[in-house]
Amino acid sequence: MQKPLTVLNQTINRPVIVELKAGREYRGILDGYDPHMNLVLKNAEELVNNEVVRKLDLTIVRGDNVIYISP
């Protein structure tokens, strides 16, 4: 079994899907993270109810809002 931070480390510079509380989702390239699972995504799309709300060159997602991260 792999530890979560090991999986995140292997996913750097690769696409991820990040599901957040309140039905919000981000899809983008994982640029970095910290031990609290705060994430930095580049070339990201913010989705609400599966519809793209906006596109972001760079965004930071606070770890305590994350439900899951899918590489």
From TrEMBL:
Swiss-Prot/TrEMBL keywords: Ribonucleoprotein
UniProt cross-references to Gene3D superfamilies, sorted A to Z: 2.30.30.100
PROSITE patterns noted in UniProt: SM
InterPro entries listed in its UniProt record: Lsm6/sSmF (IPR016487), LSM_dom_sf (IPR010920), Sm (IPR047575), Sm_dom_euk/arc (IPR001163), snRNP_Sm-like_arc (IPR022901)
Family matches, as Pfam families: LSM
CDD domains to which the protein is assigned, alphabetical: archaeal_Sm1
Domain Sm: 3-71
GO molecular function, one term: RNA binding
Taxonomy, superkingdom: Archaea
GO biological process: mRNA splicing, via spliceosome
GO cellular component: ribonucleoprotein complex
Family indicated by similarity: Belongs to the snRNP Sm proteins family.
Name by which UniProt lists this protein: Putative snRNP Sm-like protein
Organism expressing this protein natively: Candidatus Methanomassiliicoccus intestinalis
